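Ticket 4471: requesting a sanity check on a complex prediction with adenosine-5'-diphosphate. Repro inputs:
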Amino acid sequence: MKNNNKKPSSLSKLMQYSGNYKAMIYTSWIFAGLSAVFTLLPFWFIWKIISEAVSLAPDFSNPHHMKVNAIYAMICALCAILFYIGGLLCSHLGAFRVATNLRLHLIRHISFLPPGEKDRIGSGALRRVISDSTEASETYLAHQLPDQSKSTVMFIGLMYLMFRCDWRLALLCLIPVLIGFLSLMSMAGKGLREKMTNYQNALSDMSNEAVEYIRGIPVVKTFNQTVFSFKRFKDSIDRYSTWASGYSRDVRLPILIYTVAINSIFLFLYLSVNLIAKGNIDTEFILKIIFFVIISPIMTAMLTSMMSSNETKLKVEDAISRMENVLAIKPLVSSNSAHPAGYSVAFENVSFSYDKETTVLNHISFEVEQGKTFALVGPSGGGKSTIASLATRFFDPDEGRITIGGVSLKDIPKKELMDNVSFVFQDAKLIQGSILDNLRLGKREASEKEVYQALETAQCMDIIEKFPTGIHTVIGSEGVYLSGGEQQRLTIARAILKNAPVLILDEATAFADPDNEAKIQAAIGALSRNKTIIMIAHRLSTVRHADRICVVENGSIAEQGSFDELLSKKGTFASMWEEYNRSVDWKL
Ligand code: ADP
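Returned structure tokens:
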């Protein structure tokens, strides 16, 4: 029975992106094959010239076909070059089209992915997926496949010429080729594909960590840290180094045998001559030897190109599978079918897992009434940030639903959802642009006056006054450094400008010094007025005035209620509160 589940090859996957240029790619193979034929023909004519020269010796005054054969050889060499250039032209046109379509498709897909997924994969790894998969496909289609077509035709042509010339010499010359190939095949048996994947994973990790490292350089400089504070970056380099040296060690011997074997065709030729001729070397045999001497370097060059094309193929397959992993992530889609009738927020039986194996949230249900503040507390790793990420639709839940004003987030048009929800997280995200541009992300049409008002309310005027260009100062430009606390205040100003009715807040002030902390608290106070708030509280002092408190532990809700209700329950929250008070007393 025919196997319909056969996996499509790398080529057919790439061809889906070739649009009208498919024919170009196929034409490039035909041209490369023709170029191979025309590359071999000059050798045939040269052999004829040598034969004639030997037969004429020692009187070369009256050659018959030498000149014609020389002209034929030159014409063929020229045709070989022209067909090769034509082939490369076609292959590059096709390859660039595929690379462009692939890049556009990936960027479009990534722009619709849940923001949380993009954070999880990492910007470095995403950049590698986009650039490497297109680069690898370009090399594969523009160079490797035409070269493969050329090598195949040349191999067949060479075999024909060699066996036609002398089958015994041809067979003996094939021995080193066979040794070389057996050695290459032994490499494949060592799980080379898997090692290549691990090697590429290590490269990807390193790329991610390098991006983080570069982003963090200002912090390192400002706080007088050493480069060793970037332990993860160093670890990723060490891992890469382990994989790279392991990979090199594994392929060292087979590649060595292969290289020695295919370069020793001359040696086998020498041995063959002695074996076959046994000292009786006539003119005809000398001619055959000359022919083999001429063509064996082509054989070596051709086999070397075949070997490197094998490695490129592994790289392409790996790059394509990484691309497919990203393409397999479901984009956020919205049915655009409903509009919230208010600004209450509810989690209904929500379960979620990042890796679809370990459950991080387990049947979570709660409701936050419009205009009320809901505080999430609990031990680190319990799931509070995950709840906040789901409420902002950074991810969609695996089970259950999340609603605003009674409407599932999945049904609210994306723009409307974004207009209705603001978030201020610990890792304040500012883009490389002016402070004004960053704030206008909250409200595109905001006037400069409105921006100043928001900055003032968010206690940011000291930041603006620090720079001579004020709100036009470009974040990330030379000499412009903002502390974590300052960045957080700017994101609060952005949220104030946006003035969305629902606010998801991570109140952590991890970066802040006491002065910054007081300002952040004041800014948050201003931002929070009349909003429905889900707040991750890291210090219990801030939850006193929350309307409802929810203790999240191991992905479940351990307790929920008002501050007084929870204290009187004498459960987890009560003991957390006791502990907190003890620590405050101890500090005092
Ligand atoms: P909390 O905010 O209460 O400290 P989190 O929601 O950050 O807890 O984490 C809950 C669990 O989910 C933890 O086990 C954490 O390791 C895991 N987790 C958090 N973010 C991710 C992520 N992006 N990918 C995979 N696991 C994650």
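Notes from triage: The two ends are 80 Å apart (CA to CA). Leaving this open until the requester confirms.
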